[in-house]
Amino acid sequence: MLLKELCELFGPSGWEDEVRNFILSRIKADEIIVDSMGNIIAHKIGGGKKVMVAAHMDEVGFIVSGFTDEGFVKFKTVGGILTTVLVSKKVLLGEKRVPGVISAKAVHLQKRDEREKLIPMSELYIDIGAKDKDEAKSLLNLGDYGIFAGEYTEFGDGLVKSKALDDRVGCATVLGLMEQEYRNDMYYVFTVQEEVGLRGAIIAANRIRPDYALVIEGTTCSDVYGTKPHETVTNLGGGAVMTAMDRAAVSDRRYFEMIKNVAERENIPLQIKRTSMGGTDAGSIQRSGGGVKTAVLAVPCRYIHSPVSVMSKNDFDSVGRLSAAVLNELERSDI
Questions:
Q1: 74, 32 in Cβ contact below 8 A?
Q2: CB count, 10 Å around CB of 39?
Q3: Which of 34, 43, 126, 248 could potentially form a cystine with 100 if both were Cys, beta carbons 3.0 to 4.6 Å apart?
């Protein structure tokens, strides 16, 4: 399955090579460019409006920052990862995909006050089984990247658990959209370094200068135990998610309303994200060139930016169907 293959690839921000090569092997377009940042820009020539459809290739991860005399690896996070999800998690590091586990002092050895507080990042390390610093340095280098080691697994009633659903769900959706034909001038873009500041998207958008952009994402789902109904951001199984506003962008209002109307007409479930937190590549694209009309469609994912996120295959399907319907609508709608 395409999504499974994408999710299990190694692609932290700044080291998206494996994801990029996988996508390049599967796309066809009139022109394909890999720019200086590493973004893929696949152009299918058409008439009318210039439309950019984007998803980011990178995932949150780690970077090697040092080695202890005992052979343990010190690290920093790449992208937004809470310390609470790190301890005892399996990781893969560097080009050799060195396996390791994020570790800390055992509970038996912690003082009472230590057990009652969050372990600071500075006290965590990665155990790769090395006997000393020299052996650890023979396997890894300073600046090597790492990712969570998490497999794609289907479970429950049409659910999936995997690392990197953010944003391999977007990459898979864009690859599916590329198999269809649209009359507008279409640019399918797979961006880099979204998780560390929406960096690749601004370069790609300034090159393309689109009239419209549709960003496909994986987004926060907080419908879990302990969350009050009015505090849920999105709901698993509730369909595609559209963002009105976040910290990086405000969706064009006419574009936003058009998508709502298309979803209703096509009987595709759609929910509006009920928070203004976070940000996507839309923030960079919207402010590129002379300004771009943008919208964001996303798959709701529980436990995002962790070793294992959870999504519904029905929601994933809704995003794909709605994205295609929106691109068709852009051919005849003047917004």
A1: no
A2: 26
A3: 126
pLDDT over 90, % of the chain:
79
* Nearest alpha-carbon partner for 244 in 298, 320, 202: 298
Confirm if 233 and 74 have CB atoms less than 8 A apart: no
Instruction: Please give the span between the terminal C-alpha atoms of the chain, in angstroms, as a whole number.
Output: 36
Q: How confident is the model at residue 109 (pLDDT cuts 50, 70, 90)?
A: very low
Q: Band the pLDDT of 14: cuts 50, 70, 90.
A: very high
Q: Are 177 and 327 in contact (CB under 8 A)?
A: yes
pLDDT in tens, 229-252: 666 678 899 999 999 888 878 888
Domain locations in the chain as residue ranges: 2-59+163-332, 61-148
pLDDT digits (tens, 9 = 90+) for 152-192: 999 999 999 999 999 999 999 999 999 999 999 999 999 99
Architecture of the domain delimited by 2-59+163-332: 3-Layer(aba) Sandwich (3.40)
R_g over Cα of the chain? 21
Q: Which active-site residues does the annotation give?
A: 194
For residue 32, the one-letter residue type is I
What letter represents residue 75's amino acid? F
At residue 45, what is the residue type?
I
61-148: which CATH architecture?
Beta Barrel (2.40)
Domains 2-59+163-332 and 61-148 share a fold: no
pLDDT at 107 over 70: no
Residue 116 has pLDDT above 70, yes or no: no
Cβ atoms within 10 A of the Cβ of 48, count? 13
CA distance 329 to 111: 62
